[in-house]
Amino acid sequence: MSLSSETFVCKCHEIDWMTPLKNGGITVYNYTDGTEHLQGIDVGKGLPCGDKVNMRHMTHEDSLHLCQYSDWSDSRTKMPKDLITYIQEWGGHSPYDSRFDIHHPDHYLNHYYSLQDLIIHLDKPNWFEFEPIQGTTDEAQAKRDIVEIEGLKQDSLNSE
User: Fold this and answer.
1) Which of 17, 18, 42, 137 stands the most exposed, by the fewest C-beta atoms within 10 Å?
2) Cα separation of 68 and 63, whole Å?
């Protein structure tokens, strides 16, 4: 059963599409209020178009026509460019990586303007004045790094 164009409204804006680039690269998504999005389960929030297609509430053709996030080749897509780059380069299925953990000092936005800048740096490190960040795939080590950095910050604040 397809919803008609007149009644369908894209709710993809209610998803925080940058979640994987904040949580260490784990491909799960949250709603913009921080609530975890569970694929295909209507929890009273707006379902993204992909879920509606998978649940047969609309057709794939409807989503291509009406979704503001689906056509990544369209310069007007509302899908964040860094997420598109991440999925294209990492396949959206990477293990934990501290470069995508917003709490870790390795987080790519602490060092680059975009994910594309990180990729360029990894391909051509001599284009930048500093050493490439390495990123760790050891989540336990990353948590220890975060605790250490937070401790150093607190020590600095206490000494003022």
Assistant:
1) 42
2) 9
Compute the Cα dihedral for 150, 32, 36, 22 and give only its sign: negative
**Residues with pLDDT less than 50, the chain:** 1-6
C-alpha span between 90 and 1 (Å, rounded): 34
Give me the residue spans of the domains in the chain: 1-79, 95-160
What are the tens digits of pLDDT across the range 127-139?
Answer: 666 665 777 888 8
Q: How many residues would you count in the chain?
A: 160
List CB contacts of 80: < 8 A, sequence separation 6 or more: 17, 18
Q: Which residues contact 134 (CB under 8 A, 6 or more apart)?
A: 106
d(CA 144, CA 76): 41
Q: Which amino acid is at 67?
A: C
